[in-house]
Specification:
Elements: H1 15-42, H2 48-75, H3 105-123, H4 133-156, H5 160-163, H6 172-190, H7 206-225, H8 233-261, H9 266-280, H10 289-309, H11 321-339, H12 342-345, H13 356-385, H14 394-399, H15 401-406, E1 418-423, E2 427-432
Antiparallel strand pairs: 1-2
Helix pairs in contact: 1-2, 1-3, 1-7, 2-3, 2-4, 3-4, 3-6, 4-6, 4-13, 6-11, 6-13, 7-8, 7-9, 8-9, 8-10, 9-10, 9-11, 10-11, 11-13
Length: about 425
């Protein structure tokens, strides 16, 4: 029998913590294909594969960039604004325990890589159905470094926000606010779909949306529960809160849907699950189960109203990443400043338990993170647009991104499905097979 015996574990490594973190890492990795399923159901049938492939593309590009450079910039050193290059190419990242944990440094890196992957995939929700696949992959590569790695360093890599007292348990700053406000910038730069505001652009498969949301909730137990890097109290508390908060958001969403349209919608239910998971992400191990339920119920309100209001604007932020992640993440960050309890977290109290300063720390993060994420993403995409077209032509958009970008269809319609022929220069003409 091959393998390493327990007696051969490196000094400082806990077998139980390591086993849990292996599972948690796999759970978070699963969340990106689950997000692809969730997003794919929300778009029109002709864009199903392309929408899913944007998430799959993020797995590849963000994963490689993270290993080569992003992890080092996020977690090497304690510089205020950015980490160092000591871990570039995974130099020195081995089986010894990561400082402050009892798990191998290599496993810590892998767990953090899955966060970078899904965050990059989240941004795609703002530009589906019209952004070209190649430029999107280039965007992911650069964005993973200049936005995600920077925010990750600020919040839990030793940067200025964490050093100044801001609390963020599982990524409310780099993952949720980072993706939500970057998505808004991406939507502004890439522009509206050609039919936006002129015809109904409806989800084509609500079952995909519900299944994707369910798998996301399942994976989120690894996302939040794993962010304690052990089987100790913080992980247990975050795990339980990840059960309670989305349940409360879901129930409140039912009521809001009934008030607004007299029907409980499936897409609304799926969205509520995601919103609840996002709300508790930053606060997971800092607030009590009771307050986590309050957060789920009350925090659903601003997210719901953002989703209702956003279509009235000219911004085609297609899949409401801003509402479900940006606004929910911001709400969760601020909730720490209100509800944090030293009796539960052993770290700090919030305003309701006598420490108003903690709310100030959280409010600072809620101010600077949206500004940085939006600003850097806007500049990045504007710079890219000088060198390449970010989106397809109107004709290609009408044909559908699946055929134009991948030469495939999600749903075959007849023998041979579809034949795409070049015509009129660079235009494409679709004919049934």
């Amino acid at each position: 029998m091959s393998g390493v015996s327990l007696a051969a574990l490196p000094a400082g490594i806990d077998a139980g913590d390591t086993a849990w973190m292996l599972v948690a890492t796999a759970l978070v990795l699963m969340m990106t294909p689950a997000l692809g399923l969730f997003y794919a159901g929300l778009v029109r049938a002709k864009n199903t594969l392309n929408t899913f492939m944007m998430c799959i593309g993020a797995l590849a590009v963000a994963g490689v960039v993270w290993a080569l450079l992003g992890y080092s910039l996020a977690f090497d050193g304690t510089g205020s604004l950015l980490g160092g290059l000591g871990y570039a190419g995974l130099h020195g990242v081995d089986f010894a325990p990561r400082e402050g944990t009892a798990i191998p440094h290599l496993l810590f890196m892998a767990f953090q890589a899955t966060f970078c992957m899904i965050t990059a995939a989240l941004v795609s929700g703002a530009v589906v159905e019209r952004m070209r696949f190649g430029p999107f992959l280039v965007f992911v590569a650069i964005w993973s470094i200049v936005v995600y790695s920077v925010l990750a360093h600020w919040s839990f890599g030793g940067g200025w926000l964490s050093a100044g007292g801001t609390l963020d348990f599982a990524g409310g700053i780099p993952v949720e606010m980072g993706s939500g406000f970057s998505a808004l910038a991406a939507a502004v730069v890439v522009g509206q779909r050609k039919d936006y505001g002129r015809q109904a652009l409806l989800p084509h498969n609500a079952m995909y949306v519900l299944l994707g949301a369910g798998l996301l909730w399942f994976g989120w137990f690894g996302f939040n529960g794993g962010s304690g890097f052990s089987t100790g109290d913080p992980s247990v508390l975050a795990f339980v809160n990840t059960l309670l908060t989305p349940a409360c958001s879901l129930l409140v969403w039912f009521v809001l849907d009934l008030i607004r349209g007299r029907k409980v919608t499936a897409v609304g239910a799926a969205t509520a699950i995601v919103v609840g998971c996002v709300l508790i992400t930053p606060a997971g191990a800092f607030i009590s189960p009771g307050w986590s339920m309050v957060l789920g119920a009350v925090g659903a309100l601003p997210c719901y109203f953002m989703i209702v209001w956003r279509p009235r604007t000219r911004v085609d932020e297609t899949l409401d990443v801003l509402a479900a992640h940006g606004v929910a993440g911001l709400t969760g960050i601020l909730a720490i400043g209100l509800f944090a309890s030293f009796a539960w977290n052993g770290v700090a109290d919030g305003l309701f338990y006598g420490d108003a300063a903690q709310l100030g720390h959280q409010a600072l993060a809620a101010l600077v993170t949206p500004l940085y994420a939006f600003g850097m993403t806007y500049v990045l995409l504007r710079a890219m647009s000088l060198f390449t077209a970010l989106r397809t032509s109107e004709h290609e958009e009408a044909v559908g991104m699946d055929v134009v970008q991948h030469g495939e269809e999600a749903y075959a319609s007849g023998e041979g499905a579809i034949l795409v022929l070049p015509a009129d220069g660079e235009k494409l003409v679709a004919e049934p097979g």
